């Protein structure tokens, strides 16, 4: 998409976050020039970005918030592509969901797309979530969930699932925006993202493995956990950007595994951590298909590799002894 001999310039929102950091790393390693938006470029939690290979010449950080349209315009100006990754992902409930979750997810996405239109961006990859897919009581039991499945907004409201409500509204609006504008917009919906961290601060989804390894829970619900490696998510976002045939939304999930089976796997590799002692039966299975993404050439790594690299990363960053 760039002129011959010129490196392509893309913007990544929320560059310092868990998923975005891997995406920035891969983009830099492929020779892209990256504009990363962060809320505070001086914050220690973004320091890892400057240490990435090729960052000194090819990574530029822009201070902006998702609710700061002018700031987003400044970051996106001159870019041919945008990866909209930023969104609050809290580990639990928040006191003011409208302000803390819905507004940054929905108004934030609108602001990013308007800024992309203004800058005549060629393609936008929006990170949505399985939370915009699977939170519905209406999908037939036992039927595999794919891109046809949407979370039920009323159900999200009545169950006070504000994060999933925000992601659902934001993704629906993004795909509507694509229909009524020139902007080429695709969405990627990852399930629970696990794997090694590049950033120094803990993010919500990384708590899943950490709490199994060291939580020492007396009892845990034996839920079906849909998981995908963070590096495979970053690869999916790249594919979404680089493949010309990409269209619409893409579910991004590798394994659905019961918590007890995940613990067994962890135990077989690392017997000495403080694992949950008992499991209570949890209703419901989950069948997910990422076939549409796989048809683009997407591959995912073995769960054992994800686990090994995650434990190594937790040890290096001091989260695990
Ligand atoms: N991790 C998962 O399991 C998972 C699963 C499905 C989808 N996703 C999606 O993947 C994306 C990245 O998630 P993640 O796991 O990497 O989370 P993360 O590490 O918490 O990163 C979230 C990023 O969003 C930024 N952000 C939040 N609110 C913002 C605002 N108002 N303005 C500007 N930036 C803001 C954060 O910036 P600060 O550092 O300044 O707070 C941070 O860089 C999100 O869109 C999330 O919904 C994640």
Automatic annotation (TrEMBL):
<dbReference type="Pfam" id="PF01370">
    <property type="entry name" value="Epimerase"/>
</dbReference>
<dbReference type="InterPro" id="IPR036291">
    <property type="entry name" value="NAD(P)-bd_dom_sf"/>
</dbReference>
<dbReference type="GO" id="GO:0016616">
    <property type="term" value="F:oxidoreductase activity, acting on the CH-OH group of donors, NAD or NADP as acceptor"/>
</dbReference>
<keyword id="KW-0560">Oxidoreductase</keyword>
<dbReference type="InterPro" id="IPR001509">
    <property type="entry name" value="Epimerase_deHydtase"/>
</dbReference>
<protein>
    <recommendedName>
        <fullName>NAD-dependent epimerase/dehydratase domain-containing protein</fullName>
    </recommendedName>
</protein>
<dbReference type="InterPro" id="IPR050425">
    <property type="entry name" value="NAD(P)_dehydrat-like"/>
</dbReference>
<keyword id="KW-0521">NADP</keyword>
<feature type="domain" description="NAD-dependent epimerase/dehydratase">
    <location>
        <begin position="10"/>
        <end position="245"/>
    </location>
</feature>
